[in-house]
Amino acid sequence: MTATTGELAVRTRGLRKRYGQLDAVAGVDLSIRSGEVFGLLGPNGAGKSTTVEILQGHRARDAGEVEVLGEDPATATRSWRGKVGIVWQDESAPGELTVRETVRHFSRYYPNPRQPDEVIELVGLAEKAGSRIKALSGGQRRRLDVALGVIGGPELLLLDEPTTGFDPGARRQFWSLIRQLAAEGTTILLTTHYLEEAEALADRLAVIAGGRIAAEGTPAHLRESYSGEATVEWTEPDGSPRSERTTTPTRTVAGLMRRYDGEIPGLRISRPTLEDVYLRLTGQESAR
Ligand SMILES: Nc1ncnc2c1ncn2[C@@H]1O[C@H](COP(=O)(O)OP(=O)(O)OP(=O)(O)O)[C@@H](O)[C@H]1O
C-alpha cells in the first residue's frame, strides 16, 4: 500500500496563497519522501496551516504546482481522499457517542478501513472505548482525532499543530504514537510551533517564516550549517559588556589576549543551539 521509498509523497513548486494584500504563502517548494516524518516548523502566522490546507485540498492556491500522492489535491478523486488522513486543528466529533461508536462510524466512510478496536488500542484509548466523547480530556480528544485520521488506513497523514495545549507528559505520549505510525510506514507531515517537537519527530524539517521556507534539512544538518558562527563575549575595562559574532572565534580571542594582560574578564564563547538557529531564521532572535 505504501509507495516505494524514495518516491515523493508531497511535492510543491512555487506554491502561493494571498489573502488580500498579505502573501500568506509566498513561493513554497516542498519535497516530502514516502515513509518519512516531515516537520513544518514556524511561528504564528508563518503560513503552516494555509500550506497544509492546500495540500488537503481544502483551500485553493493562487499559483504553483502541487502533487500529493501523485494527484493535484484541487481536483483529487474520491480514492485519493481515502489515502490521505487528516487531523484537523479543531476536530469536533459529536459528544454523545462513545469512542468506539465514533471510530466505527467514521470507518464506514472508507473502502478499506483499519479495524476500529485496533486503532483505538493504537492511540491508547482502549480503556476509554466505552466512554462518551464529551467525558474525554483534551489530550484524549486529540488521540481520538488521530484515530479518526488513521481509521481509513492512510498512506499520508497530515497533522496541523497536533500537540498545541498538551502538557509535557501528553506530548511525549503523542510523540510515541506518531513514531509508531511512522514505523508502520505512514508518511507524516506535521506542523508545529515547537522546535523540540520537530527535532524529536522529524526525519527532515523545513523552517517557514513569512510564507517562505527559510531553511530545510535534517535537524543535524540545520544545526551544522548554521553553527559555524560563534559568539565571543567579554567585559571591557570600564565594565561594559561586549560581544562579537564571528566565524573565527580563536582569532578574536587572540586579539583580546593581546589587549589584556592575563585573564580576559567575562570571557565566554558560545555556539548557537538549534533553538538559536530557529529564532534567527524566523526573525525572532530578540525573543531570547
Ligand atoms: N482566511 C484567511 N483570511 C485572511 N487571512 C488569513 C486567513 N487565514 C490565514 N490568514 C493569514 O495568513 C497568514 C498565515 O496564516 P496561517 O494560519 O497559515 O499561519 P500558521 O503558520 O498556521 O499560524 P499559526 O501557527 O498561528 O496557526 C497569517 O498572517 C494569517 O493571519
TrEMBL record:
Gene3D superfamilies: P-loop containing nucleotide triphosphate hydrolases. It comes from Streptomyces indicus. GO terms for biological process: response to antibiotic. This is ABC-type xenobiotic transporter. Its EC number is 7.6.2.2. Residues 10-235 form the ABC transporter domain. Belongs to the ABC transporter superfamily. Drug exporter-1 (DrugE1) (TC 3.A.1.105) family. It is an enzyme of class 7 (translocase).
